[in-house]
Amino acid sequence: MRIIGNSHDYYDSARAFGSDPNVIFERGTLASRFSDTDVMTKFPKSANQICNINFLMKHNKRPDRELEYRDSLYASYQFNVVRMVVWFAGKGYRGMKLAMKAGDDPTIVWSYEGLVKFFEQNDFTITDGTYLDPYANHRYHTRPTVSAVDYFKPIEPDADTLQWMFDNRIAIAYQHNAMNNKPDGFHINKSGLGMLNFQTIVDAYTAFQELSMWVGGVLCMPNPKMVTLSDIEKVRKHGFDKLSFRKEKQTT
């Protein structure tokens, strides 16, 4: 795959293993505007997978006290969190940029194990990563809530999100809630995944191969698929039936 554009990302190193020059991916830079207005016109809500997270934890200095963490309850003072969503070659991934307080160097995690490690380094232990408060998804909440384990599971795009990708030839789309969850906050076909430590969840070689197959295979397929009618269906479509072309028997 040939990458056109004055930008660089972590998976570019995989080109050393060979690539198909007939597959071309035009990639922009973060310096350019977020996305074309036309691309976002039919933006599906299902593509925005940013959500709250819920789990149980204990502070190591107070092991007798169990705490419930839910973004809508504690994010304002427990620690700083920026939620991120990346659509890459037709697959969705959720991550987090974490810091215990403002001014700390953030830690970026793309897995539940990474979340556990972050808390352990800050004197917390996650006791139940599958916990979900039955009232977490109250109808008044503006954003859905999932358990910590479910948050980091890969996301399968629904039909609307796939159609949006096909119509606009989207290979990479990512956003984070620091962009206020607005559709125009998506970076479309841009570099910058390396700065998000995306290589910790998809290595350079795998990323390059999946991107090449998505751009050269899926996005190049005709859409929608043309339907081929059989001869019988063509006859019926024009108002004829099986008796229309039969000659009447001659009477003597």
Q: If helices are DSSP runs of H or I spanning 4 or more residues, what is the number of helices?
A: 7
Strand order of the largest sheet: 7-6-5-10-11
Mean pLDDT: 80
Approximate strand percentage: 15-25%
User: How does the major sheet shape up?
Assistant: 5 strands, antiparallel
Question: How many strands in all?
Answer: 11
Describe what you observe in this structure.
The structure is a single chain. The protein has 252 residues and is α+β, with helices and mostly antiparallel strands. The relative contact order is 0.21. The strands form three sheets. Strands 7-6-5-10-11 form a five-stranded antiparallel beta sheet. Strands 3, 4, 8 and 9 form a four-stranded mixed beta sheet that branches. The model is unreliable at 223-227 (pLDDT under 50). A hairpin with a 7-residue loop joins β6 (91-99) and β7. Helix content is 21%, strand content 23%. The longest helix has 15 residues, at 204-218.
Secondary-structure map:
Elements: E1 2-4, E2 24-26, H1 37-40, E3 52-59, E4 62-70, H2 71-74, E5 80-88, E6 91-99, E7 107-109, H3 112-120, E8 124-128, E9 145-147, H4 148-151, H5 159-168, E10 172-176, E11 187-188, H6 204-218, H7 231-237
Parallel strand pairs: 1-2, 3-9
Antiparallel strand pairs: 3-4, 3-8, 5-6, 5-10, 6-7, 10-11
